[in-house]
């Protein structure tokens, strides 16, 4: 009897083991079918609030009414069409049907209205740019009236800070509800975010099940993550690693000219930088070609102005003469004399703070180059690195120069740059400059629809900004991404707005 019971027990145990193996196998198969991708970037994200950060759009969580394509032309997105009913003061946007937020709530004109109202409440910069007087919603039709004619309103609505979210969702800072192909699964500020597919996405089901987005300001660590297999896509690996990565058959390196400008901002609230001669001295101190060769390891081009030469509104105003001796002439015009190796005025050596930030490593390098050249003309320059440059330069006035990397024409138009840098309330008007002639031209630009006339006005604005040296354009860095060869449908976008898309896939 015991023998029979033992045999029965063994038989049942075997059946149990087979069932367990079968279950584990099914679980493994199911897991193996799950498409996941890890993306490592240098984009810090302490919040997912789209009014405060671009990450929500970059990660495919939220979308804007209008988007920009790779030809830098604006095209419909959440809004399928729009028109102006007068001189550019009244705009009518028709919102697409059949779109839902990731909590299932329908997208209609009223929801868009509430989201844009939140945008202009939370962001003084966007309030200044959009110039919205009132909005009226009816079904899928949103009518926007601006305080003045604004020919660029559709273009301004491309900006990631205008992303449309459900304002009634409980946590817009850590788990915003957008209309994009991916919704937030978890978020650790300045560390990691996981998103999972939104199966009911209006543009079609995303190909990936989930994406892990991590932040690391160390370019070598980003490169190592790709080489070790921890990452599938790395945004801006170490420049010096590009040739090695190109030789790896399992890796793809994509290098594109970017719309960025590595530039110098001057602070006119510092007495010395109120003088144009002073600003001009630092404008000519560094040779842009040396910056490309040294700080960018050849991955870029000298800047002749804020915009790439290939853009129709670009103007070539930069001098071709650089170096300490050239800069010395302007310092002398500003009243400084070189005495005992020091630039002296009113008995004091010229000294100030230069502020930079680490997650674009070429900027600290450029800052060191500037410091070294400044020493040759007797200028004492202290470099300070900060983590949150945007906050620092807008709230502090203890700096003379900051190095900054700005996408100057993200929507294929010059209006963004001039409004952001030189109009009252502009997001990057950190230099606190006010040039009446420049303001007048920018106002005309904002009211002009004809593209040829807009390009002409933009060139005129550029001439004034260059003549007064309100900033210094140094170099245009290349944009480069490296990814594993099993990644499909990756696009290195010029605008840098769209990163994780519904078409991104792995083999």
Notes on the protein architecture:
The protein is about 30% helix and about 25% strand. It is α+β, with helices and mostly antiparallel strands and about 500 residues long. The strands form five sheets. Strands 1, 8, 9, 10, 11, 12, 13, 14, 18, 19, 20 and 21 form a twelve-stranded mixed sheet that branches. Strands 4-5-7-6 form a four-stranded antiparallel sheet, with helices on one face. It is globular.
Question: What is the number of strand segments?
Answer: 23
- Spans of at least 5 consecutive residues whose pLDDT stays below 50 are 1-31
Q: What would you call the structural class?
A: alpha+beta
SS field, number of helical segments? 15
Please tell me how large the radius of gyration is.
27 Å
- Mind summarizing the main beta sheet? 12 strands, mixed
Using brief descriptors, characterize the structure shown.
507 residues; alpha+beta; 12-stranded mixed β-sheet; 4-stranded antiparallel β-sheet; 15 helices; 32% helix; globular; disordered N terminus
Secondary structure layout:
Blueprint: H1 2-33, E1 36-41, H2 55-58, E2 66-68, E3 74-76, E4 79-84, E5 90-95, H3 109-122, H4 124-130, E6 132-138, E7 141-146, H5 153-156, E8 182-188, E9 192-197, E10 210-215, H6 219-228, E11 233-235, H7 242-247, E12 251-257, E13 260-266, H8 276-283, H9 288-294, E14 300-302, H10 324-333, E15 337-339, E16 342-345, E17 348-349, E18 351-356, H11 362-376, E19 380-385, H12 389-395, E20 401-407, H13 415-422, H14 436-447, H15 451-467, E21 471-484, E22 487-488, E23 505-506
Parallel strand pairs: 1-10, 1-11, 18-19, 18-20
Antiparallel strand pairs: 2-3, 4-5, 5-7, 6-7, 8-9, 9-10, 11-21, 12-21, 13-20, 13-21, 14-21, 15-16, 16-17, 22-23
Helix pairs in contact: 3-4, 8-10, 13-14, 14-15
């Amino acid at each position: 009897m015991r023998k029979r019971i033992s045999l029965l027990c063994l038989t049942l145990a075997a059946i149990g083991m087979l069932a367990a193996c079968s279950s584990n196998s099914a679980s493994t198969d199911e897991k193996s079918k799950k498409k996941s991708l890890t993306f490592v970037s240098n984009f810090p994200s302490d919040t997912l609030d789209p009014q405060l950060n671009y990450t929500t759009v970059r990660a495919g969580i939220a979308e804007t009414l209008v988007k920009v394509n790779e030809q830098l032309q604006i095209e419909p997105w959440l809004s399928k069409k729009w028109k102006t009913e007068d001189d550019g003061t009244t705009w009518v946007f028709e919102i697409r049907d059949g779109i839902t937020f990731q909590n299932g709530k329908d997208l209609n004109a009223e929801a868009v209205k509430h989201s844009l109202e939140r945008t202009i409440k939370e962001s003084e910069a966007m309030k200044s740019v959009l110039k919205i007087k009132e909005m009226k919603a009816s079904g899928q039709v949103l009518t926007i009236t601006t305080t003045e004619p604004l020919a660029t309103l559709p273009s301004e609505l491309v900006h990631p800070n205008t992303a449309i979210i459900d304002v009634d969702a409980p946590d817009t800072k850590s788990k915003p509800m957008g209309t994009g192909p991916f919704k937030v699964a978890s978020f650790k500020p300045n560390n990691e975010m996981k998103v999972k597919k939104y199966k009911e996405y209006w543009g079609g089901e995303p190909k990936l099940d989930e994406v892990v987005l991590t932040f690391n300001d160390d370019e070598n660590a980003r490169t190592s993550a790709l080489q070790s297999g921890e990452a599938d896509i790395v945004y801006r690996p170490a420049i010096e690693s590009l040739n090695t990565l190109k030789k790896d058959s399992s890796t793809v390196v994509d290098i594109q000219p970017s719309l960025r400008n590595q530039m110098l901002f001057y602070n006119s609230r510092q007495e010395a930088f109120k003088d144009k001669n002073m600003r001009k001295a630092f404008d000519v101190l560094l040779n842009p070609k040396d910056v490309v060769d040294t700080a960018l390891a050849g991955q870029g081009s000298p800047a002749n102005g804020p915009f790439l030469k290939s853009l129709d509104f670009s103007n070539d105003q930069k001098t071709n003469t650089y170096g300490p001796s050239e800069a010395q002439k302007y310092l002398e015009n500003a009243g400084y004399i070189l005495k005992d190796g020091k630039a002296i005025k009113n008995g004091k050596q010229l000294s100030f703070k230069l502020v930079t930030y680490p997650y674009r490593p070429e900027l600290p390098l450029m800052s060191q180059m500037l410091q070294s050249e400044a020493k040759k003309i007797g200028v004492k320059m202290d470099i300070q690195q900060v983590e949150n440059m945007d906050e620092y330069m807008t709230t502090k006035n203890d700096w003379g120069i900051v190095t900054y990397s700005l996408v100057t024409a993200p929507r294929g138009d010059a209006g963004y740059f001039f409004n952001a840098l030189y109009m009252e309330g502009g997001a990057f008007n950190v230099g606190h400059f006010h040039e009446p002639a420049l303001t007048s031209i920018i106002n005309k630009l904002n009211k002009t629809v004809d593209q040829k006339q807009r390009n002409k006005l933009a060139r005129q604005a550029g001439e004034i900004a260059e003549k007064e040296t309100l900033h210094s354009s140094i170099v245009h860095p290349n944009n480069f991404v490296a990814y594993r060869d099993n990644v499909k449908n990756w696009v290195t976008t010029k605008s840098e707005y769209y990163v994780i898309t519904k078409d991104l896939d792995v083999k």
